[in-house]
Amino acid sequence: MKYFLVHRGDDISRQLAEQFHTLAAEHGTPLCEEAPDIVLSIGGDGTLLHAFHKYKEQLETIAFVGIHTGRLGFFADWKPDELGVLAQLIFQTRTPEELSVVHYPVVEIELTTEAGIETHLALNEFTLKGIEETLVAQLDINDEKFEMFRGDGICISSPSGSTAYNKSLGGAIVHPSLAAIQIAEIASINNRVYRTLGSPIILPKHHHCDIYPREHQHMLLSIDHQYIQRSDVKSIRCRVAADLKVKFARFRPFPFWNRVREAFIGYDIK
Questions:
Q1: Does 209 lie in the same domain as 136?
Q2: 190 marked among binding-site residues
Q3: Most CB atoms within 10 A, among 81, 122, 141, 260?
Q4: pTM for the full predicted model
């Protein structure tokens, strides 16, 4: 199998990357940046997000695996001292078809702007926030007007992103086997003119939400770790990507709820 490796750039991540390259060369496993079969992420969740966006056009053919060298790596199954074990498991896998993988849904974002239509993918979340003033937007669900929003912003997360920014906004944690998106408000303002539900909303696959910001609203948009400022957005459609999922290679079991417990509660439950 062909591999590529993305690392965070700190000393330990760089050392682990050099160690893996050496082991791969010894086993005749080719390094290939253009079309790898497996992509290793060494660092934290931000490193994995960077790898995802680097290869978002090749999600059907690439599997990701993470080695955690930071404080909290939700996408990472492996610790630094387990690199040798992981390497052997990868080298023993002769073809991509032999990989055991899990598939996670991602968010599809369709921006209609004054210049045309743009399509983006988010592994964790998409957010929009007002700049210089509060965000004002109409929110529709399945082409029906749902609410008028005024506040700091709106967060649309995937199930795998439900443990990230969405959780800090009071959103629910959603198992990534469920194809859904979650809408969470960021400091909404409620009065007689602007009324919102005030609770997170979970939409299943085949449902969508449309956001219509006020004309020429100056906004900060984020797609995972990428930030852009725009004032030409006419509408935003968010939904579960219909035909694309991200693949993670699983060389051993690591149940999702174990990840949640380890990340937020710890093992000492009394």
A1: yes
A2: no
A3: 122
A4: 0.93
Domain extent, residue 188, equals 106-242
Q: Is 29 annotated as a binding residue?
A: no
Residue 137 among known ligand-binding residues: no
Q: Decide if 151 is inside a domain.
A: yes
- The tally of domains found in the chain comes to 2
Strand, helix or coil for residue 11: helix
Q: What is the pLDDT along the chain (270 residues), one digit of tens a residue?
A: 999 999 999 999 999 999 999 999 999 999 999 999 999 999 999 999 999 999 999 999 999 999 999 766 788 889 999 999 999 999 999 898 999 999 999 999 999 999 999 999 999 999 999 998 999 999 999 999 999 999 999 999 999 999 999 999 999 999 999 999 999 999 999 988 888 999 999 999 999 999 999 999 999 999 999 999 999 999 999 999 998 999 999 999 888 998 898 888 876 655
According to DSSP, residue 46 is labeled H
Q: How far apart are CA 52 and CA 58, in angstroms?
A: 9
Residues marked as catalytic: 45
Q: Coil, strand, or helix at residue 129?
A: strand
Spatial separation of the C-alpha atoms in residues 4 and 40, rounded to whole Å: 6
